């Protein structure tokens, strides 16, 4: 006969999460590493009460902004290769609404975060309540419905018994290799406190596994046939290689068949930089080496990538005649652009394809081309990071940190100019050590995502550092988790590169013939008084150690001090907003340009953009 326990809906959710486990590297750990929370009237009295009782098993980190909480949860999930997740809880109304951007970031990057958000009263007796957004034609339609386009799983709990069905489905969504993404559970304020007699069996300890998606043998055979017909094959390795625990299989596949490997932005650190088959980063923020190989490739083997436009150069990187083979556990991604699809995980699919390929190897002249392109790109990177060449630029700071950091240190960057500069110039020394958030290209991810990664890193590798590259624009947008890192002793090293605004967008703006307008502070017409931000004082006011350096040479000694410090450390360096960008290696990128304009420069910019379209693949 079944036994039961009477719990509130909130208590049942927390108790269920406490009892979910997973095996990682031979150890059994809780699937949920805890959570990030900002309490309000929509979640403090009921869910807050339940979380207090579980504070030892599910540690709760107090957020400074809900959006930052979601970014931190994403950074945590990335570090753990999607095998562990954190929840985020926010109050009804604006607190919950602030998490929509975070959900979109997790959705675009296929990352697991669990959102437990306050919602309106099911009874509607007190309606309208504080922070309720009323829809005149549908009283059930509210702020929480805004999450439906940006999560993989969505539910609103209107009775405690629904948790028995909903919560396991949410967890499986978070763990699914094909459909992984954020899960949202709306918790009406009254339902959170309602009690129900839950079967004890629901709370039994469970150890989860991430299921392997095994490809159909016929798809494996078709992929092998396409590759066997190639002379100049190229692998594009995406972030899914690491999430699928297939780094070794990728390297072995490439080595056995001598196939060059290009990396996407999310796939940086699939191979170390000096691996003889590493062609470098590909695409709009890529390298001359990888893009030159892509242009001449006759078969492109896409492994664990969703092929976004920065990877494909808006589909100009490859010849119309190049055939695509796509290995991906997600059917949606595997079948893109008429690829020969292998719907399966790379860990099992690559060895299976390799077995059918026998002693196949790339043509000798193809490997000679790779060697030449690699050596030429290496010279470009050496020049980019040279601290003796002025003016101050991103790539110099990247080079200093790259040379001085440990191979196991984690590097985090996100939107703006830094993703391109890190992707192009960083020489990977350790597998899986680079997190450049460009799936959603989200400003503000840098410090918050680094904070989440640091929480995970301290459990796994406390001797290594988490190093954040951030521009002044992103820092001004979202910096509160620098304080979070300080008060929780989760040390971050933050390299804050100040270019006086949104310089990379100014570069795009002026590069298409437009006038500088509203991106750099000096070109903001409504900014009538220039007031330089004292980033050092600001960082110190949040409890971090901080200093400003004049140039990349001075950065060397400052970074050594940051490494020795036990506290979070911010190093500020001004960089030139106009000069010193990495210009080599960039593929064409399609952006909208005015086809009609009074200004000649704008018309010229449009003509230049349209001329690049000649190399664009048309839907294949």
Description:
The chain has 620 residues and is α/β, with parallel strands linked by helices. The chain folds into four domains: 4-208, Rossmann fold (3-Layer(aba) Sandwich), CATH 3.40.50; 217-376, 3-Layer(aba) Sandwich (Rossmann fold), CATH 3.40.50.1220; 386-574, Thiamin diphosphate (ThDP)-binding fold, Pyr/PP domains (Rossmann fold, 3-Layer(aba) Sandwich); 590-620, no CATH class. Helices cover 37% and strands 18% of the residues. Helix 2 links the parallel strand 4 and strand 5. Helix 1 (9-18) packs parallel to helix 2 (47-53), helix 3 packs parallel to helix 5 (100-108) and helix 16 crosses helix 23.
- Global mean pLDDT: 96
Look at the structure and name the CATH superfamily of the largest domain. Thiamin diphosphate (ThDP)-binding fold, Pyr/PP domains
Content of β-strand: 15-25%
Distance from N terminus to C terminus (CA atoms, Å) equals 60 Å
Helix content: 25-40%
Uncertain stretches of 5 or more adjacent residues: none
Kindly summarize this structure in a few lines.
This protein is of the alpha/beta class. It is globular, with a radius of gyration of 25 Å.
Please render the helix and strand layout as text.
Layout: E1 4-8, H1 9-18, E2 20-24, E3 27-30, E4 32-37, H2 47-53, E5 60-62, H3 66-79, E6 85-90, H4 94-97, H5 100-108, E7 114-119, E8 153-156, H6 163-175, E9 183-188, H7 189-193, E10 195-199, E11 206-208, H8 217-228, E12 233-237, H9 240-243, H10 247-257, E13 261-263, E14 278-281, H11 288-296, E15 299-303, H12 309-312, E16 323-328, H13 331-334, E17 340-343, H14 346-357, H15 364-385, H16 394-404, E18 410-413, H17 418-425, E19 434-436, H18 445-460, E20 466-471, H19 472-477, H20 480-487, E21 493-498, H21 503-511, H22 535-541, E22 545-549, H23 552-564, E23 569-574, H24 600-612
Parallel strand pairs: 2-11, 4-5, 4-6, 6-7, 7-9, 8-9, 12-13, 12-15, 13-14, 15-16, 16-17, 18-19, 18-20, 20-21, 21-23, 22-23
Antiparallel strand pairs: 1-10, 2-3
Helix pairs in contact: 1-2, 3-5, 3-18, 8-14, 10-14, 11-15, 16-17, 16-23
């Amino acid at each position: 006969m079944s036994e039961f326990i009477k719990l509130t809906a909130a208590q049942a959710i927390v108790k269920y999460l406490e009892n979910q486990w997973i095996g990682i590297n031979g150890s059994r750990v809780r699937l949920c590493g805890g959570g990030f929370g900002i309490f309000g009237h929509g979640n403090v009295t009921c869910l807050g009460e339940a979380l207090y009782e579980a504070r030892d098993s599910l540690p709760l980190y107090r957020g400074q902004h809900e959006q930052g909480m979601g970014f931190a949860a994403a950074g945590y999930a990335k570090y753990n290769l999607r095998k562990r997740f954190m929840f985020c809880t926010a109050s009804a109304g604006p607190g919950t609404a602030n998490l929509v951007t975070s959900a979109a970031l997790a959705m675009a990057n296929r990352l697991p975060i669990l959102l437990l958000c306050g919602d309106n009263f099911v009874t509607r007796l007190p309606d309208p309540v504080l922070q309720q957004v009323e829809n005149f034609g549908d009283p059930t339609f509210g702020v929480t419905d805004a999450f439906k386009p940006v999560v993989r799983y969505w539910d609103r709990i209107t009775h405690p018994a629904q948790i028995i069905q909903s919560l396991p489905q949410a967890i499986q969504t978070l763990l699914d290799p094909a459909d992984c993404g954020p899960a949202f559970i709306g918790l009406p304020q009254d339902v959170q406190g309602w009690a129900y007699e839950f079967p004890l069996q629901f709370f039994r300890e469970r150890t989860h596994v991430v299921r392997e998606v095994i490809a159909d043998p016929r798809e494996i055979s078709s992929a092998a046939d396409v590759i066997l017909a190639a002379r100049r094959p190229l692998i594009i390795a995406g972030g899914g290689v690491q999430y699928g625990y297939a780094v070794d299989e990728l390297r072995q596949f490439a080595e056995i068949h001598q196939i060059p490997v290009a990396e996407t932005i999310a796939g940086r650190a699939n191979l170390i930089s000096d691996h003889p088959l590493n062609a470098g980063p590909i695409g709009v923020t890529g390298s001359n080496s990888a893009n030159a190989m892509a242009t001449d490739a006759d078969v492109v083997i896409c492994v664990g990538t969703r092929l976004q436009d920065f990877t494909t150069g808006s589909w100009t990187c490859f010849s119309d005649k190049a055939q695509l083979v796509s290995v991906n556990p997600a059917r949606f991604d595997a079948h893109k652009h008429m690829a020969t699809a292998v719907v399966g995980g790379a860990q099992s699919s690559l060895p299976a394809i390799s077995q059918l390929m026998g002693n196949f190897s790339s043509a000798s002249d193809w490997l000679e081309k790779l060697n030449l392109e690699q050596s030429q790109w290496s010279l470009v990177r050496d020049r980019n990071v040279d601290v003796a060449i002025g003016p101050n630029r991103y790539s110099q700071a990247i080079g200093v940190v790259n040379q001085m950091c440990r191979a196991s240190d984690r590097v985090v960057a996100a939107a703006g100019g830094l993703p391109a500069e890190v992707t192009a110039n960083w020489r990977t020394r350790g597998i899986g050590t680079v997190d450049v958030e460009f799936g959603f290209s989200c400003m503000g991810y840098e410090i918050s995502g680094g904070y989440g990664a640091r929480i995970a890193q301290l459990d796994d590798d406390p001797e290594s550092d988490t190093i954040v590259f951030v521009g002044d624009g992103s820092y001004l947008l979202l910096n509160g988790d620098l304080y979070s890192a300080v008060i929780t002793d989760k040390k971050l090293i933050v390299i804050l590169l100040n270019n006086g605004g949104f310089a990379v967008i100014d570069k795009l703006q002026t590069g298409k013939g437009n006038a500088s307008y509203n991106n750099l502070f000096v070109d903001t017409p409504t900014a009538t008084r220039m007031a330089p931000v004292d980033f050092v004082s600001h960082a110190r006011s949040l409890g971090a150690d901080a200093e400003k350096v004049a140039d990349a040479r001075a950065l060397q000694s400052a970074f050594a001090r940051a490494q020795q410090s036990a506290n979070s450390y911010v190093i500020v360096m001004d960089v030139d907003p106009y000069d010193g960008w990495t210009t080599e290696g960039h593929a064409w990128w399609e952006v909208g340009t005015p086809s009609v304009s009074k200004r000649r420069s704008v018309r010229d910019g449009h003509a230049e953009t349209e001329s690049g379209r000649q190399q664009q693949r048309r839907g294949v």
